[in-house]
Design brief:
Layout: H1 20-54, H2 58-92, H3 102-114, H4 118-138, H5 141-148, H6 164-198, H7 213-240, E1 245-248, E2 252-255, H8 259-284, H9 286-289, H10 293-322, H11 326-344, E3 351-354, H12 368-374, E4 375-376, H13 386-393, E5 399-400, E6 406-411, E7 417-424, E8 426-427, H14 437-443, E9 447-448, E10 450-458, E11 464-469, E12 474-475, E13 483-484, E14 494-496, E15 502-506, E16 512-515, E17 523-524, H15 528-537, H16 542-545, E18 554-556, H17 561-568, E19 573-574, E20 579-583, E21 586-597, E22 606-607, H18 608-611, E23 631-632, E24 634-644, E25 650-654, H19 660-668, E26 673-674, H20 681-684, H21 691-704, H22 709-714, E27 719-720, E28 737-741, E29 750-759, E30 767-772, E31 783-787, H23 797-806, H24 808-817, E32 823-826, E33 830-834, E34 837-847, E35 854-863, E36 866-870, H25 873-881, H26 903-924, H27 928-955, H28 966-972, H29 974-977
Parallel strand pairs: 3-31, 25-26
Antiparallel strand pairs: 1-2, 4-28, 5-8, 6-7, 7-10, 9-13, 10-11, 11-12, 14-18, 15-16, 17-18, 19-21, 20-21, 21-24, 22-23, 24-25, 27-29, 28-29, 29-30, 30-31, 32-34, 33-34, 34-35, 35-36
Helix pairs in contact: 1-2, 1-15, 2-4, 2-6, 5-6, 6-7, 7-8, 8-10, 23-28, 26-27
């Protein structure tokens, strides 16, 4: 073996420092890496600042930033100083000589190795804990701002008689301070104990005393501070009972005090507070007594008391006082929960009316004219007809419509408001001829125009009756800026306004027009620093050196309406459905926003992500609510926001002028929210009651429609939101729907948002709920519930759908509509209260042949057991109500097949099949005239088959039930009804 130290047996190997060249290279790489990291951090900060400045909400950025920085440094410094001071103090109070023992000899090696680096080690430890504590504190910026700017609710809780603002704004901040204090003391105890142990102040195996007097005093004081904080925690826990969530068997999720809380936990917390104070004083007394005996006894007493008084005693009270007479004991507290929950969710003014569920008019033909005055029945389903809009009004592949269109109301030429289905022709990058960086971000930058159709009509071919159409769009909406740079599908950045021209639209002569953005939106890229920052932030180097960027170039990003509102108001919860409206010759996106808290005493909590979910959000995640806190027990639609589709300008308007949470945030960010009076009359006409708030309220009203504690505790009046009954839909909750209708007691139709309820675990109808959704009216936000009798069964949505599917002649017609490669889609099942009964209407669409987009083919209508399945709504209503000389539908024999020896029926069905096939062929050829004739032939053949079937039934002695087979339909769903 060679001698590494050198010698005659081998050469000496010199181990030394790296060469100067290597050191220079390493140093250079280190500096470059540090500069790269620094510039990356700077790029993120700088681009955020530029964006907020471009939307004129720089105060939101600076207030939030300085708050985070202040919290970071204050609490980081407090933690670092506390831990560092205790380490320094423990080191300073170390014994001058360590005991001669094996333990101390082992520790001598560590003390010697640490000695040269003591200062650096102390700085490193304190810096690390300071950074962690500071980052944790910075995340509490909302809590701090709400506490320091809090506005009173002027409502007191029923237990402690404190203003609700204490629970919503103060208590969360106090709990943070308490948690920070506990963390600080625990780290100080650990750091001090380790330091004392390292320098001999604490001993484990050495003979003699286990701790020096100074170590005993030091650690006793720290533990005393910990116990004192525990006393504060016990005191705050008393108030925390008012917002504590628990599982209550009688009601499910529960918030607030119950009998055991008020009569066991509350006094227990007070007693434990007193014990903890005494125990803390005993620990502080060790500074003079220098003994652990009394503090340890006191601490043991506190632990024992916590087990007996805080745990065992409440369990005994619950077992032997509450359970034997639960309803009587809990009723007063349930009443408080009922009142607080209804007030916190804005459902305390709900109007509940008993409703028969059956018509009071014997001659149904008299009701035919009442249908039109009761509701403007919408047969264009905005959640189905988007592909039809796409096919008929897309015009170019690089345009697209949202999956779910929106319902709004616009005035006709006669001045009457009508429900309108509307969507914007937004940019679709997947449809451009060739994808590359220039095309994706410079050439194809915007959509073009709105498309609207009547909600209550379809043409003879089942297509929407467009009131705004073509490219550029024209129609009833008048003139407006049609370019759409900001929209729901616009989720990438664009660079506009520079030397590169943008594709605008193609006219009727297929000539492509170009444009250049003239808005003041976006961030100017004239500065090399800005370009470098965005190249880094977007990981796109070409932004830095591309010649397509020049004078006037601006970068547009954060372009979806919900994203922009959330960014400028990070303290708001955003509704899942932003919708467009043409207001003042501009396209404005309207976004509903909420203020929330989970600190409203006695109000039960709800999970926004769950209560706002339905069959639409299950298939379209973009409609999900954007929640700042998912668990809430107070919500208000406090802000209406708009986003200009061309400039991206965001405006926030105060909507709920009484909401203290909004007032707190307006005090925090002055000037960001405009007054309600600033809302223009044109915008007011398009504001509506928000869907997500309505879904939260309807979920609460399944239990909290009850105002009596005894009834609430029995659970006999619990409802549920029914699952979407239409076939091929998810088993999620049925979505609410907008509809202009007149509720019983109203004098005229109002734009409303409606839903239904069924009993818990059953399918029959419990109630119908509607809210006046038309902003600017005196009844806006008024919730009305029609409560159905419990003594009789009124068919619910699933039973009605089952009746539709079980009617023989309807099932046969559906089978024919599904012939070939066609698909049948069911629209929204609409429920309309009419003369004490309930009218159900459901449009049926067919995707036929090679078109692959839905057209309205039939309308299902049922009322009081009479069912119709016709080409148009008017024909179906005529048949159901027997008006205009219409014949009633044939009864259902229950066999599902024509009787033997009935050639007329078979011939009619053969003719129907031929007519259907001819219609499909006409669709493939886009021959709508031939298609309309084939549909007429199909209708005639089906009517002939129905009449022949009826005659054959009578001749065979068949039953002659109600028109439309209503009785048989109910009988077929009897199992569901008794569910």
């Amino acid at each position: 073996m060679p001698d590494r130290g050198g010698g005659p047996t081998g050469p000496r190997i010199r181990v030394g420092r790296p060469s100067r060249r290597a050191r220079t290279l390493l140093m250079t790489l280190g500096v470059l890496a540090a500069l790269g990291m620094a510039f990356t951090m700077f790029a993120g900060f700088w681009t955020d600042w530029l964006w907020y400045r471009s939307v004129h909400y720089s105060s939101v950025f600076t207030t939030t930033l300085w708050t985070k920085i202040g919290l970071f440094f204050v609490f980081g410094l407090l933690m670092a100083v506390a831990v560092g001071f205790n380490i320094w103090l423990a080191h300073r109070m170390r014994p001058p000589l360590s005991a001669m023992s094996t333990e101390q000899q082992s520790l001598d090696r560590y003390r010697m190795s640490v000695a040269p680096y003591k200062t650096w080690l102390l700085l490193g430890i304190t810096a690390l804990v300071g950074l962690i504590a500071g980052a944790s504190a910075a995340s509490q910026w909302r809590t701090w701002l709400m506490w320091v700017n809090s506005v009173p609710f002027h409502q007191k809780d029923p237990q402690f008689h404190l203003d609700v603002s204490f629970y919503a704004f103060d208590l969360p901040w106090y709990r943070f301070l308490l948690g920070f204090g506990f963390a600080t003391v625990i780290l100080c105890v650990i750091a001090a104990a380790l330091t004392h142990y390292l320098y001999g102040g604490l001993r484990v195996t050495s003979p003699g005393a286990r701790a020096t007097a100074v170590a005993t005093g030091h650690l006793s004081v720290l533990i005393g501070v910990f116990v004192a904080l525990k006393a504060v925690a016990y005191w705050l826990d008393r108030y925390g009972l008012a917002v504590k969530s628990s599982d209550f068997k009688a009601t499910g999720n529960w918030t607030g005090l119950r009998y055991v809380d008020a009569n066991a936990y509350l006094p227990a917390k007070t007693i434990l507070f007193c014990i903890a104070v005494i125990c803390a004083l005993l620990f502080f007394a060790t500074l003079w007594r220098r003994t652990w005996q009394l503090p340890v006894i006191g601490f043991g007493l506190m632990v024992l008391s916590a087990i007996l008084i805080g745990g065992l005693y409440p369990a005994i009270v619950q077992k032997f006082q509450v359970q034997p007479n639960e309803q009587t004991k809990e009723a007063p507290y349930v009443q408080k929960n009922l009142e607080a929950t209804r007030k916190a969710y804005g459902i305390d003014d709900t109007e509940v009316t008993e409703y028969n569920g059956t018509s009071t008019t014997e001659d149904k033909t008299k009701l035919r004219d009442d249908v039109g005055s009761t509701a403007s029945i919408r047969i264009m389903d905005p959640n189905i007809v988007s592909p039809t809009f796409q096919q008929l009004q897309q015009m170019r592949n690089y345009y697209a419509f949202p999956t779910n269109l929106d319902v709004d109301r616009y005035s006709t030429k006669s001045g009457k408001d009508q429900d309108t289905v509307i969507g914007l022709r937004e940019l679709n990058l997947a449809g451009i001829p060739k994808n590359n960086w220039i095309n994706d971000h410079f050439r194809y930058t915007h959509g073009f125009g709105a498309v609207a159709a009547k909600g209550t009509e379809a043409d003879s071919a089942g297509r929407p009756v467009f009131t705004e159409y073509n490219l550029p769009s024209k129609g009833d909406l008048g003139s407006y800026q049609q370019r759409i740079y900001y929209g729901e599908k616009t989720n990438t950045y664009s660079i506009v306004g520079g030397p590169q021209k943008e594709i605008d639209y193609s006219d009727d002569d297929e000539k492509t027009r170009t444009t250049s953005y003239r808005g003041n939106s976006g961030v100017n890229l004239a500065s090399p620093v800005n370009r470098a920052a965005y190249a880094m932030a977007f990981n796109e180097p070409q932004i830095l050196y591309s010649g397509a960027i020049g004078k006037g170039s601006r970068i547009l990003y954060n372009r979806t309406p919900k994203e922009r509102v959330e960014a400028v108001a990070p303290w708001l919860t955003i509704d899942g459905d932003a919708y467009p409206a043409v207001v003042g010759h501009r396209i404005q996106w309207i976004v509903d926003a909420y203020t929330t808290t989970n600190g409203y005493p006695y109000a039960s909590r709800t999970t926004l992500g769950d209560t706002t979910a339905d069959s639409l959000t299950a298939t379209n995640n973009s409609r999900a609510v954007v929640a700042q806190q998912n668990q809430v027990n107070y919500i208000r639609n406090s802000v209406k926001a708009t986003v200009d589709a061309y400039t991206g300008e965001v405006k926030l308007y105060q909507w709920d002028t009484k909401d203290p949470v909004l007032k707190t945030w307006m005090k925090t960010f002055p000037g960001t929210v405009k007054a309600k009076a600033d809302i223009s009359s044109g915008l007011m006409q398009h504001l509506r009651y928000p869907q997500d708030l309505f879904k939260v309220q309807r979920e609460l009203l399944t239990r909290y429609h009850v105002t009596d504690a005894q009834t609430f505790l029995t659970g006999s009046e619990v409802w549920q939101v029914p699952a979407d009954p239409t076939p091929n839909k998810s088993n999620s909750a049925v979505p609410p729907y907008y509809l202009s209708m007149k509720m019983p007691g109203q004098k005229s139709q109002a734009f409303s948002l409606s839903t239904t309820f069924t009993p818990n675990g059953r399918y029959n109808l419990s109630a119908f709920m509607s809210v006046d959704a038309e902003a600017g009216t005196g009844d806006y936000g008024k919730i009305r519930i029609l409560k159905l009798p419990t003594s009789t069964n009124v068919d619910g949505p699933r039973q009605i759908q089952s009746q539709f599917n079980s009617e023989q002649y309807i099932a046969e017609a559906i089978r024919l509509l599904k012939g070939g490669d066609s698909e049948v889609e069911y629209g929204n099942l609409l429920t309309v209260p009419l003369d004490g009964g309930l009218l159900y209407v459901e449009p049926v669409y067919v995707r036929g042949g090679g078109l692959k987009y839905p057209l309205l083919r039939k309308v299902l209508v049922t009322y009081e057991g009479r069912t119709a399945f016709e080409d148009t709504l008017d024909e179906a209503l005529d048949k159901v109500f027997g008006a205009k000389g219409a014949t009633t539908p044939p009864p259902d024999t229950g066999t599902g097949n024509p009787p033997p020896g009935s050639p007329t029926v078979r011939q009619a069905l053969d003719d129907a099949q031929k007519a259907f096939d001819a219609g499909q062929e006409a669709l493939r050829k886009n021959d709508f005239a031939a298609y309309g004739k084939a549909q007429k032939d199909l209708e005639d053949a089906l009517k002939l088959a129905a009449e022949a079937q009826s005659k054959a039934d009578k001749a065979a002695g068949g039953s002659s039930g109600k028109a439309g087979g209503g009785d048989s339909g109910k009988g077929g769903d009897g199992g569901a009804s008794s569910g």
